[in-house]
Design a protein that fits this description.
This protein is an alpha/beta fold. It has one domain (109-351, 358-431). The chain is built from 15 helices and twelve strands. It has helices at residues 2-56, 62-73, 140-145, 174-181, 208-213, 222-230, 257-260, 262-266, 268-271, 291-300, 317-326, 332-344, 375-390, 399-409, 422-428; strands at 115-117, 152-154, 185-191, 215-221, 240-241, 244-249, 277-281, 285-287, 306-310, 364-372, 417-420, 429-431. The strands form three sheets. An eight-stranded mixed sheet has the order 5-6-4-3-7-10-9-11. Helix 13 (375-390) crosses helix 14. The longest helix has 55 residues, at 2-56. The chain is elongated and about 125 Å long. Residues 115-434 form the TOD1/MUCI70 glycosyltransferase-like domain. This is TOD1/MUCI70 glycosyltransferase-like domain-containing protein. The chain crosses the membrane at residues 27-53. Keywords: Membrane, Transmembrane, Transmembrane helix.
Length: 446
């Protein structure tokens, strides 16, 4: 038994020594691991400080370098243009038989007065004999008086200079004048400065009655005539291309072709002195409805002497002014001068909540106009043209002022204007974009 006890004591003592040795080795191992980790941390900190100093001297971190590489070395995907808002036509219910239509009895029983047009300047005190102008030199006093619907002679374009001075512009051939003087119903348009292609009316939708009784006249300048001829729209011996009778205008009255385009647009009653009705359409439109149906629907059935559609998005002149400036449609100072005068003369903002508005909209879509050539309609056309002649060619800026002032100054003499929806206009015509302006020639390399 003593032997066994001694052996057990020896074994226990060996186990204790082995455990102590193992414990000492583990402790040393963990101390070593901690030391290595401290060393790595210190090294990383030192490297970070060094890298930070480098960054302060202009180096970019990897993420920024990667982004910079992506931005500058890889082409960006082209951003999609915002989709334009689309507008659609709406139904217009016409009567059927065009050739059976006749002017209603007493239709022309509107406000009656005698309207004459000034041919030469009367007052030498405000006229520069060396500066004859197509629209004349109307004073503000004459402008104010011209809004009265009374027997009068007013400025309305086509003024001649004194004897021996050149024409003020819009010169036509005598044979074209004879043709135009016989027209009773007119569809007219113009292309100046080769700004558009020739859009022929859709012949199959025009009645034989209208083809025989309506004059379709397209005014062009000589450069446009040459361009159209090269494009396959050369007129025949009678000057016709399809239904259009091309009338060449020489000596354009304005350097701004847009302003020149306002002459046939507003002064149809002067170019066609015997006409009773006229339809104006911009050259970007193709007529796809019979003109007699249009006159019947927008004038005869509504008892109106002037018809024009409202604008498809804007209804207040304030909005139109901002849009013209935003798109740089005209000199901003000229727009401000015109608009300031209108405000001082009583023009206020359009009120969409007014239950009895003077107009459905203060901004028209002036590319399509239907007129009966009554005294009041002719007066309004002259007044509107005079505003364009005096100020800017942006006729949408002067429409509401001209109408409201005419109405205000003649409370007992109504002007029967039909301002219809733009979607109706779109049902009468096919709309195209204007011709893209030709690019300037590349610079010559010497």
């Amino acid at each position: 038994m003593g032997v066994y006890k001694s052996l057990d004591q020896i074994k226990n003592s060996r186990r204790g020594r082995n455990f102590s040795v193992f414990t000492n080795k583990g402790l040393l191992f963990w101390v070593f691991v901690l030391a290595v980790l401290c060393f790595i941390s210190l090294a990383a900190f030192a490297l970070g400080m060094h890298f930070h100093v480098k960054l302060e001297h202009g180096m970019l971190p990897w993420r920024e370098m990667r982004e910079d590489f992506i931005v500058h070395d890889v082409p960006e995907r082209p951003t999609k243009k915002p989709r334009r808002q689309r507008f659609f036509p709406c139904d217009v219910v016409f009567r059927d038989a065009v050739d059976l239509h006749s002017e209603p009895k007493d239709f022309m029983n509107f406000t009656q007065f005698s309207l004459g047009y000034m041919e030469t300047e009367k007052k030498a005190s405000h006229t520069d004999a060396h500066d004859p102008r197509f629209g004349g030199h109307q004073t503000l006093e004459e402008r104010e008086q011209s809004f009265s619907a009374v027997n009068q002679t007013i400025h309305c374009g086509f003024l001649r200079g004194a004897a021996g001075l050149p024409s003020t512009g819009f010169d036509l051939k005598e044979e074209d004048k004879r043709y135009m003087s016989a027209c009773r119903v007119v569809v007219s348009s113009c292309i100046f400065g080769s700004s558009d292609f020739l859009r022929r009316p859709t012949s199959r939708l025009i009645s034989e009655y209208s083809k025989k009784n309506v004059c379709f006249v397209m005014f062009v300048d000589e450069g446009t005539l040459s361009t159209l001829s090269k494009e396959g729209s050369a007129p025949d011996d009678g000057g016709f291309v399809g239904l259009w009778k091309l009338v060449v205008v020489k000596n354009l009255p304005y350097t701004d072709t847009r302003k020149t385009g306002k002459v046939p647009k507003f002064l149809t009653h002067r170019l066609f002195p015997s006409s009773r009705y006229s339809i104006w359409l911009d050259s970007k439109l193709r007529l796809s409805t019979d003109p007699m149906l249009i006159i019947d629907h927008f004038l005869w059935q509504t008892g109106s002497e002037y018809a024009i559609s409202n604008h498809y998005t804007r209804h207040c002149v304030w909005e139109e002014v901002l849009q013209n400036k935003r798109l740089n449609k005209y000199n901003h100072t000229a727009i401000d001068e015109q608009f300031s005068l209108y405000q001082s003369d009583g023009l206020t903002k359009f009120d969409p909540l007014d239950p009895n508005p003077s107009l459905p909209s203060y901004v028209p879509e002036g590319s399509f106009i239907v007129r009966a050539h009554t005294p009041m309609s002719n007066l309004f056309s002259c007044l509107w043209f005079n505003e364009v002649d005096r100020f800017t060619s942006r006729d949408q800026l002067s429409f509401a002022f001209t109408f409201l002032k005419l109405k205000r100054m003649n409370p007992d003499k109504p002007f029967h204007l039909n301002m219809f929806k733009d979607c109706e206009r779109r049902s009468l015509v096919k709309l195209f974009h204007h011709r893209e302006p030709s690019a300037p020639p590349p610079p010559r390399i010497v």
